[in-house]
Amino acid sequence: MEYTPAPLLKAAEQFAKLPGIGMKTAQRLAYHMLSLPIESVREFADGVRDARESVKFCSLCQNFTETVPCPVCSGNRNTKIICVVESPRDVSVFERTGGYDGVYHVLHGLLSPMDGTLPEDIRIRELMERLAGEVDEVIMATNPTIEGEATASYISRLIKTLGIKVSRLAYGLPAGASLEFADDVTLTKALENRNEI
Amino acid sequence: MEYTPAPLLKAAEQFAKLPGIGMKTAQRLAYHMLSLPIESVREFADGVRDARESVKFCSLCQNFTETVPCPVCSGNRNTKIICVVESPRDVSVFERTGGYDGVYHVLHGLLSPMDGTLPEDIRIRELMERLAGEVDEVIMATNPTIEGEATASYISRLIKTLGIKVSRLAYGLPAGASLEFADDVTLTKALENRNEI
Questions:
Q1: Phi, psi (rounded to 5 degrees) for B140
Q2: Å from A161 to nearest chain B CA?
Q3: Looking at residue A82, what DSSP letter applies?
Q4: Nearest to residue A103, comparing CAs of A129, A74, A128, A143?
Q5: What is the pLDDT of residue B1?
Q6: Closest chain B residue to A66 measured between Cα atoms?
Q7: ipTM of this complex prediction, to 2 decimal places
Q8: How far apart are CA B70 and CA A180, in angstroms?
Q9: CB contact under 8 A, B45 and A41
C-alpha cells in the first residue's frame, strides 16, 4: 500500500542529495515544506535557483560573484599578492578577519588522486595565466590536510619556475582542521607567520 | 567589504529557515548548490515546489495525498477504527508495520498551551465530524510526551461523550530494549500493564 505521495518522496530524494543530509532528515525536511505556506516554499525554491542562476565566476580570481570582476578584484587591493584557496567559502573567512589586503585565487577543489581530481580539474591554469602579470608573492592557503598540502606543493613547484615567491600559511592551524572553522585570531596569525616554501 | 554575492546569502537564509539547519550548515548548502550543474539545481527547486503545490490534504483523514480521498481512505480498510496521530509521518510508520487495517486521522499538531496551539489549531473538528458516521473505536496514537498525552486526554474526553470506545497505545518496554536503561515511568507503566502469559 502506497501511503506517501510521490511528489513528497521526490522532494525528500532531492533533499537527500544535499551533503550531510540522510534520508531520514530529508523526509523530515520534505514534510516540513508541506506544512509551510505555499509562498514560503516558492520563496525557498526561487532563492536556491536564483543563487545558482545569477552568480557567476569572477574572470580573475574565479570566486563566485554577481559582477565581473568581483568586488575584491575590482576594489582597491594589492594585486601583487595572491592568496590561493580551495573554495569561495575560504575567501569569506579571510575577508572576515579584515587583515589581508591582497587578492585571491579560488581553485574550486584540491588535487586528489583518490577522487580522480587532476590538475586540469581545478583552476590552476587560470592561476598561472594571472602570474604572467606583475605578481610579487603567491600565498598557498589551502587547508592543512593531505590534499591541501599536496595541492600547495604541486602549485608552488609550478610557480617557483617563474621566479615568483611562494609562501604557505603558518602551521598555527591545527593539522586536520578546516579553514572554515578557524577563529579569526588563529587565521590572522597563520597569515602573518606565513613561510616561504 | 562585501565578498559574498547577495543571491548566495539569500539562498543560505532560505536553507537556515529549515528545521535543524543552522546558519553555518545553511551556508555550506548554498555554496554546494552553486557547485552543482544548473539542471540539478532546477530539479531540486522544482521538486520541492511541486511537492508543496501538488500535495493536498485528504478530505477524510487529513493526511497528505495526491488524490482525494487518499489511497488509505479509499482502499479496502476497516473504516470503523480510526487511529489518531500527530503527523503524516506517523501514518507512514504505522503503514510500514503492515499490522493495522483501520484508517487514520492526522491532527497536524498537538495541543500546547506553551506554544499557543489550541484545539481549533489542529484538526479535531474534522475528527469529530467523522465520528458522526459508523465508528467503533478511536485509537489515540499521539507520542507519549506531555503534549501527546494532553492531546490524547483532551480528545478522548470529547469522544467519550459520544459513547464511542477510545483506546490509547500501550506504554511499555520497547522491543529489544534493556531493563537497565528503561526510565522509571516506562518501567512502572510496563509493570502496571503486565499481561498474563
A1: -85, 110
A2: 32
A3: E
A4: A74
A5: 44
A6: B5
A7: 0.77
A8: 47
A9: no
